[in-house]
Backbone:
C-alpha cells in the first residue's frame, strides 16, 4: 500500500494552513504508557499493570505497546491526536485520545470492564441537533422545520441508560448543518451534543463524523467536530469485538466528497492487521456504500472490508432502515433520531428513534425503537407487495411469552417461534399468502407480554399472488431456486426419512428437508429442489432451495 497522502487542499492554502497549524514545533515521536490504573489516580504506580500489545496511533502509524505497556510512536508532522485502541475487557478511565501537544506525555489509564456475554450497543444516527426552529431555519433557510419534539433527547437518554448497553455510538450528522451557519453556532451545537447529551449516557459514547458536521471552509473543516469528539477515525475493542469508526467526508474546496483518503486506508490496513483471528469486526461510518464516491481509496476500502470478512458495516445518512447488501459484506443503514428532519416519520415509517444491537457468538441482531413508543417493529416483511410466501419477523421491546398473527378478520395463528433475548422478543413465522385473494390485506401481529400487556402491530399489504405450475418450475428450475412459490395441484407422493417426493400427477419433485405446517387449512410448506428422480444428486445444489406450498 502506498502510504503517501494526497492532500485535498490546494497548495497555497495548504502552505498557509500548515504555517499556522500546528502553532508549535511538534516532537518527532510520542512516548507513553497504556496501563490498568488499579488505584484510579491516573498515574502508573502501585499495583498498576501495563497493557501489552495495545495499538496506539497518530492516524498514520500504528504501533503496539511493549510488555510493560510502553510505546514510542513516530509522529506525522500534522498529527492532531494520539489515540489508543481500548482493549477488550477494559475501558478508558479518561479519554481514549489525547490532542498532540509540544511537551505531551501520552499516558492512557484504563480500568477493568466486563468482558463476557452478549455485546449490546445503541446506534443513534442523524440527530441534526439545533435547539430551536430559528436556528434550524438558519441552517436550512429553504426548509420549514417543526420544533424537535420535547423530550426526544431526554427520552433517548433515559431509555438507553435503562438498558445498560456496553457503548453508544452516534453515526454522524450530529448537528443541524455546518454548511452555512457561523462557527460559533456550530460550536455551541457540538458542545451540547458531546457534553450535555453525550455526557448523559452511562456507557462509553462514540461518534462518527457526518456530512453535516463539516464546516465548508477548509481553514475550519472538521476542527469543530474534533474539538469535541476527537479523531474522526479510530478503533476500539469491546467484549471480544473489534469496532472501527471511519471518516467518509473529504472536503475539497467547499464540496464534500464521500470517501476515505489514502492516509485513512493505510491506517485501517495497519489497524486490521492487529485484530486477533476470528474476532468479529463491526465498522461504522455515516454514508451508506451506494453514496460512496468511486475513488481508488473507496475501492481499496471495499476490497479490504470484504477480504477481512467483517461482520457488518453499520451506517446512517438516509434516515431510513434497510439492509443494503449481504455481499461482499453485510450492510445495515438505520433511521434517524430526528426522523425525517423533524418533519415527521421517515420514508420507512420509522419515527424519532434509534437502533439497539445485540451480538453474541458473532451473530448480530438488532431492533429499531421509536423513542417513547411501545410498538411492534416489522423487520419482515418490509415489502408492500407480497406474493407466494414471505417470512414474518416481528419484534417487540421487552419479554414476550407468546405471539400470534392473523390476516384481516381471520383466525389467529399462534407463532411457534418466539425468542426473548433479554432485551427484546422476536416472533418468526412463514406467511403463506397463496390462499389470499389478490388485493389489500391487513396483517395483525399480537405479542402477549410477560407483564400481561398485549402489544399489537398492524401492516396493510398488497397480495399479488400468482401461482406457478410444477411443469413451469421444472422447465425453468434455475429461475425458482431459492424462491418461494405457490404451485397449484401439487400432491405429496411419498416421504422417506426427512426427504419427500411430490408430484402434479405428471412429474416429480424431490424435497429435501422436513415438511412443516405453515398455515390454516392444513397447508404444507416444503423446502426443496427440483431434480429428475432418476438423476444422481447434483453437487452443491443441496444448499439451494425453493419452497413450494401445497395442499
Ligand atoms: Ca495508578
Residues:
Amino acid at each position: 500500500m502506498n502510504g503517501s497522502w494526497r492532500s485535498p487542499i490546494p497548495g497555497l492554502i495548504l502552505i498557509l494552513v500548515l504555517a499556522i497549524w500546528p502553532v508549535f514545533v511538534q516532537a518527532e515521536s510520542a512516548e507513553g504508557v497504556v496501563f490498568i490504573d488499579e488505584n484510579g489516580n491516573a498515574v502508573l504506580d502501585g499495583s498498576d499493570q501495563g497493557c501489552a500489545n495495545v495499538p496506539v496511533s497518530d492516524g498514520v502509524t500504528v504501533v503496539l505497546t511493549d510488555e510493560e505497556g510502553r510505546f514510542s510512536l513516530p509522529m506525522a508532522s500534522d498529527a492532531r491526536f494520539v489515540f489508543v485502541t481500548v482493549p477488550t475487557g477494559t475501558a478508558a478511565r479518561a479519554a481514549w485520545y489525547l490532542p498532540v501537544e509540544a511537551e505531551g506525555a501520552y499516558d492512557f489509564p484504563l480500568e477493568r470492564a466486563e468482558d463476557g456475554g452478549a455485546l449490546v450497543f445503541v446506534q443513534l444516527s442523524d440527530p441534526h441537533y439545533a435547539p430551536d426552529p430559528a436556528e434550524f431555519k438558519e441552517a436550512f433557510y429553504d426548509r420549514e422545520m417543526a420544533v424537535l419534539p420535547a423530550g426526544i433527547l431526554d427520552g433517548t437518554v433515559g431509555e438507553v441508560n435503562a438498558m445498560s448497553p456496553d457503548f453508544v455510538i452516534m453515526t454522524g450528522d450530529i448537528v443541524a448543518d455546518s454548511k452555512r451557519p457561523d462557527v460559533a453556532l456550530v460550536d455551541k451545537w457540538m458542545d451540547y451534543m458531546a457534553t450535555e447529551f453525550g455526557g448523559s449516557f452511562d456507557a462509553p459514547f462514540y461518534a462518527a463524523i457526518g456530512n453535516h458536521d463539516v464546516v465548508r471552509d477548509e481553514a475550519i473543516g472538521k476542527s469543530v467536530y474534533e474539538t469535541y469528539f476527537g479523531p474522526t477515525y479510530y478503533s476500539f475493542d469491546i467484549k471480544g469485538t473489534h469496532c472501527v469508526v471511519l471518516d467518509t467526508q473529504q472536503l475539497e474546496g467547499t464540496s464534500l466528497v464521500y470517501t476515505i483518503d489514502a492516509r485513512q486506508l493505510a491506517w485501517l490496513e495497519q489497524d486490521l492487521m492487529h485484530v486477533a483471528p476470528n474476532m468479529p469486526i463491526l465498522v461504522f461510518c455515516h454514508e451508506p456504500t451506494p453514496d460512496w464516491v468511486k475513488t481508488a481509496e473507496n475501492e481499496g476500502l471495499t476490497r479490504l472490508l470484504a477480504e477481512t470478512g467483517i461482520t457488518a458495516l453499520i451506517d446512517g445518512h438516509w434516515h431510513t432502515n434497510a439492509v443494503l447488501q449481504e455481499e461482499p459484506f453485510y450492510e445495515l443503514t438505520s433511521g434517524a433520531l430526528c426522523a425525517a428532519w423533524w418533519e415527521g416519520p421517515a420514508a420507512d415509517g420509522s419515527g424519532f428513534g434509534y437502533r439497539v444491537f445485540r451480538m453474541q457468538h458473532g451473530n448480530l441482531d438488532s431492533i429499531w425503537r421509536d423513542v417513547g413508543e411501545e410498538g411492534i417493529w416489522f423487520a419482515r416483511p418490509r415489502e408492500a407487495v407480497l406474493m407466494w410466501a414471505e417470512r414474518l419477523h416481528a419484534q417487540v421491546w421487552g419479554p414476550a411469552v407468546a405471539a400470534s398473527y392473523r390476516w384481516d378478520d381471520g383466525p389467529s395463528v399462534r407463532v411457534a417461534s418466539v425468542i426473548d433475548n433479554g432485551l427484546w422478543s422476536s416472533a418468526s413465522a412463514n406467511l403463506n399468502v397463496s390462499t389470499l385473494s389478490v388485493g389489500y390485506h391487513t396483517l395483525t401481529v399480537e405479542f402477549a407480554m410477560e407483564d400481561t400487556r398485549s402489544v399489537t402491530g398492524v401492516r396493510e399489504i398488497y397480495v399479488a399472488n400468482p401461482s406457478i405450475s410444477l411443469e413451469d418450475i421444472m422447465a425453468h428450475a434455475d429461475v425458482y431456486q431459492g424462491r418461494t412459490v405457490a404451485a397449484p395441484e401439487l400432491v405429496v407422493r411419498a416421504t422417506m426419512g426427512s426427504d419427500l417426493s411430490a408430484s402434479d400427477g405428471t412429474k416429480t419433485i424431490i424435497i429435501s428437508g422436513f415438511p412443516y405446517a405453515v398455515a390454516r387449512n392444513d397447508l404444507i410448506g416444503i423446502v426443496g429442489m427440483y431434480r429428475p428422480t432418476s438423476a444422481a444428486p447434483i453437487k452443491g445444489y443441496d444448499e439451494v432451495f425453493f419452497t413450494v406450498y401445497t395442499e
In short: The first strand starts at residue 29 and ends at 36. The CA atoms of residues 4 and 363 lie 37 Å apart. The two ends are 60 Å apart (CA to CA). The chain has four domains: 27-113, 115-370, 376-463, 470-550.
